[in-house]
Amino acid sequence: MISAKLAEDLNLGRIRLAYRPSFVSPLGLVPKHDGGWRRIHDLSWPPRQGLNQGIPDTWSAIEYMTIDDIYEQVTQAGLGCTIIKRDIKDAFRIVPVAEDNQHLLAFQWNHSTYVECCLPFGLATAPFLFNLFAEALHWILQCLLPVFYINHYLDDFIAITRSPPVSDPTGPFDEVYNEVTDYLRIPRNTNKDQQGTCVTVLGIQVDSIAMEARLPPDKLCRATLDAAAALNAASLSLKQTEHLTGSLAFCSRVVRLGRTRLQSLYTFQAAFPHGRSARRRISHEVRDDLEWWRDSLSLFNGVLLIDPCRRSITHLYTDASNTGQGLFFFSSKSISDCWLAHCHQLHPSNAASLALVQDAHAHQVAHAHINTTEVDAILQGFLLFSQHWLHHTLVIHTDSSTAHRGLSKGFLHGPPNVPLKSLLILAAARDIQIVPHWLPSQENKLADSLSRNNFQEVANICPHWQDL
């Protein structure tokens, strides 16, 4: 297989026989997503002495487009906009390497020494150098196609129709795209062409009719199993950690609340000693985040609503006291609404007054610090009502600075983190976008009265309530 690929590259001028002493590195094969194989040049060998180790990290740093850019552009382009995806064939292999540097990219095969004449897969700076070329193509296309949003992720080019819509956007786009790539002699990989209102971008299915982003079911299942398997292990290798982190980072393109649950994995991965055989014990922080991922993904249906305007807005008010917890919620048209303006519309079925002497859970909470009971009050709201909040924007009003900080950061130290973690699992699983809001205690009178089981005050505030 390698011999066949080398013969093809030799014919295309992408490699040549070496004619002076060269720096030789080994070859390898890695599987491609389409079932084929890609030849790579292991320029990180030997360990700590390979060519890549002599290249500063700053020479290979790239700021890629994100899937959030696509979500925003689809939202701005409007319902039913057309998404077009095109792919450049052979990517790195069409960018030449300066002749003076080719001797650094040598390999041996069948008793002959060859050098790379084009960027090889395995060179640390190859993505950065190719991206300079892709940026130029991006700029040309954007200038020639101003009615489209143009994006690229290395060799993938994604175009989205702007408003006003073009009657047949694919034809005009391809006319320009094909002419430019032909002129620049850029090979096109037409097997990966996609267009329409439902297109896979960066592995995520983006649907401009439903205004949804969907995680492929197989990837969702695989990531759930990976997180569970890691939790059953006492230690992980670097390769296992890289695979796990990559899998969960991919899921975070749709599970947005999971993005704050990746940092511990990145830190854990960066601390590995040199050597692929090394293993590290799983830290408490990593285990905590893996539990969050496992539980969230096992409940998640894989769907993110990408248009904020299509999300219903719900307001949840909570409070806790020494005797109980109180909460209520209502729907509105604005995230800035206040419960007082909706007082006459509040319904007792959307409220709860939980005494801390009713059950074992309440007995445990009753002896907890007020910070924990405040966060737990929000969790109780999720346990009771979050099935009604699928794909909602949920404004959570609390007079607890601890709860507000935890909702803002996604993490708290100590006991309050336990209920916070549980409610964020439910929020992620039901695609609930949380907007935390702190308010003074005097503006939280109804939730306060509910937390104290002060039904006389509740009746004064909401006289239309007969009972809870």
UniProtKB/TrEMBL annotation:
<dbReference type="Pfam" id="PF00078">
    <property type="entry name" value="RVT_1"/>
</dbReference>
<dbReference type="InterPro" id="IPR000477">
    <property type="entry name" value="RT_dom"/>
</dbReference>
<protein>
    <recommendedName>
        <fullName>Reverse transcriptase domain-containing protein</fullName>
    </recommendedName>
</protein>
<feature type="domain" description="Reverse transcriptase">
    <location>
        <begin position="11"/>
        <end position="206"/>
    </location>
</feature>
<dbReference type="InterPro" id="IPR043502">
    <property type="entry name" value="DNA/RNA_pol_sf"/>
</dbReference>
<dbReference type="InterPro" id="IPR052055">
    <property type="entry name" value="Hepadnavirus_pol/RT"/>
</dbReference>
